[in-house]
Amino acid sequence: MEIxxxxxxxxxTNKRDLPWRKASDPYIIWxxxxxxxxxxxxxxxxxxLHFTGRFPDVQSLAEASEDEALKYWEGLGYYSRAxxxxxxxRQIMEQYGGKFPAAYNEVLSLKGIGAYTAAAIVSxxxxxxxxxxxxxxxxxxSRLFALDTPIDTGKGKKEYTELAASVMNPAKAALHNQAxxxxxxxxxxxxxxxxxxxxxxxxxxxxxxxxxxxxxxKRHKTKTRNRYFYYLHIIxxxxxxxxxxxxNDIWKGLYEFPLIETEAPVDFAQLQGKDNFRxxxxxxxxxxxxxxxxxxxxxxxxxxxxxxxxxxxIEKIPESLQSCxxxxxxxxxxxxxxxxxxxxxxx
Length: 347
Ligand code: SF4
Fold this sequence. Notes:
With 347 residues, this protein is α+β, with helices and mostly antiparallel strands. The protein has helices at 3-14, 26-36, 41-54, 58-63, 66-73, 79-96, 104-108, 115-126, 135-144, 154-167, 173-186, 205-208, 268-272, 275-281, 339-346; strands at 225-235, 239-244, 255-256, 259-262, 288-300, 303-313, 325-328.
């Protein structure tokens, strides 16, 4: 039996029952794929139902405001993906009259859709023979063929894409792509591949080498950066202030309390000595300060945030807050805020 037939057989018996599995609507496949790029299937299900409950089709997403799309994405992280979904939905309305394009290159031209997502959409929906190459597929192929080309290089990506295409049965692209991804997620897992019970064992060079875990190979180790966030939850007569994040950084478009970021951890006395703190609070009169949550560790890809929240009651509204949005304290949850702020508010 060919590798593809074995994978499809295995898939028939072992696949999970997921809400998007029966879908033939490219919009639904698209949303599920973008959500699954950043969360595990178990959590992804709820986010998927929440998002598609409010935005069941391209039109409803395109007609919503970006703020609302971000609000429904809340908790998933990688907010640029929600902004791209929203922009691409508008692109589909304008360029394709609201009908999801079926040609691979047209799908690839949509904002935020890369080769992987485009291949997933056109193969799952229209059975077009484009191979998906995601982390699961890299792992399965690198082990099966004991490939030591690093996957995080241009050469590696090209080699793996060609290999993925050659392994795929083009007449069964939809089933094959879903099968190999599910196989990587459930059978050939990163740390505990179930080699003893694997239908591909006799064909697997990684298994034959005695060290399947040494595949796939990566060249670059990802560097992690520590950041120190000090949030000022300023309160005056039941009101508080939020800023909308902008610039090329995490959480663009989301709302947060006025923030002071430092290079290293500081205590409140040191924070008060900072120019930006003094400017922010100038003219606020006497401050009544309490540290509501200290050193909350929040891990993002490539960054670890250490956040402290100070609740600060003021006597007068300082001029600096004119550049922020003034809202009643109870209304914070109406704004799209990062998960980190939710954690604080839940406390
Ligand atoms: S034998 Fe082990 S390493 Fe090889 S494909 Fe199966 S589970 Fe993966």
